[in-house]
Amino acid sequence: MNSRLELPDSPGALISSSTNSADSASSSTDPEDASIEQIPAKAPLKHAPHLRMIIAPGEIADPMTVHDKVVSGFKDSFSLSSAAGWLSTAGWQHLRNSSPNYGTDAGAFGQRLGAATIRATSEGLFRESLFAPLFHEDPRYYIMGKGHPFFKRLVYAGTRSIITRSDSGHATPNFARLAGNAAGSALTIPYYPAQNTTFRAVASTFGGSLGGSALSFIVDEFLVDALVDLKLRKKQ
Predict the structure, then answer these.
(1) What domain range includes position 148?
(2) Distance from C-alpha of 153 to C-alpha of 159, rounded to nearest angstrom
(3) β-strand pairing of 59-61 with 137-138
(4) How far apart are CA 236 and CA 231, in angstroms?
(5) Domain contains 197
(6) How high is the pLDDT of residue 231?
């Protein structure tokens, strides 16, 4: 019996054996058995930019070294998109007056923004720079793409919080994200209000972080398609 974890119509490992490239690589193709497959001649492939964390269908992504993962963790944690995430998280929490319960005035929003920044940054660094190398996992997201039914893409994207691929391209539990988000949630105890630092509250914070990750993967899966459909981006 195959001992590795199966993904629903997931992209699998792929190694290019063409005469133009002798390097091993991962690609967003779809062999459900995740066996090594030959690159289809009719599908022109290109290398993904170095350290890019979202790999499009038909792109070849070189394996990540430990150095790559450490650098990508810092790069992602302090990017403009990360800053947008801090703002949106703090804004949503402030609008709902939810955890962390700092209040509803302007000062409380500033506290929520600071807390969102610390939490997201710590989770990202733990996840990508520490645990991804430790567990030999590839922290990048591989888009399944339009060649698959909508529901299968939705399930695939929504489960990337708990399932990922190893450095060798095989499916594996997403230990890096689970451990990274758990560590980031535990570190909220020193700076969250006391009512948000009980065991139950920290567990809720952890659960919310996984839900947020799942939502972000769903956005990654369908965003480009939506932009193309709205004619805000040219079809690749």
Answers:
(1) 64-229
(2) 10
(3) unpaired
(4) 12
(5) yes
(6) 63
Residue 48 pLDDT class (50, 70, 90 cuts):
confident
pLDDT recorded at residue 58: 86
Chain centroid to Cα 75, Å, comes to 14
Under 8 Å between Cβ of 168 and 217: no
Task: Confirm whether 54 is domain-assigned.
Answer: no
Is residue 150 within 8 Å of 9, Cβ to Cβ?
no
Q: Mean pLDDT throughout 41-51?
A: 70
Total structural domains in the chain? 1
Q: CA-based Rg of the chain, rounded to a whole angstrom?
A: 19
User: Is 204 within the bounds of a domain?
Assistant: yes
Q: Which residue has the tokens 């947008």?
A: 84
Output the pTM of the full model.
0.79
As given in the structure block, the two tokens for residue 184 are 């980031």
User: Is the residue at 46 inside a domain?
Assistant: no
**pLDDT range class, residue 220, cuts 50, 70, 90:** very high
CA distance 2 to 109: 50
Helix axes 175-186, 106-124, angle to 10 degrees: 140
Kindly tell me the sign of the dihedral angle through the C-alpha atoms of 150, 151, 154, 156.
negative
What is the pLDDT, as a whole number, of residue 51? 83
pLDDT at 235: 63
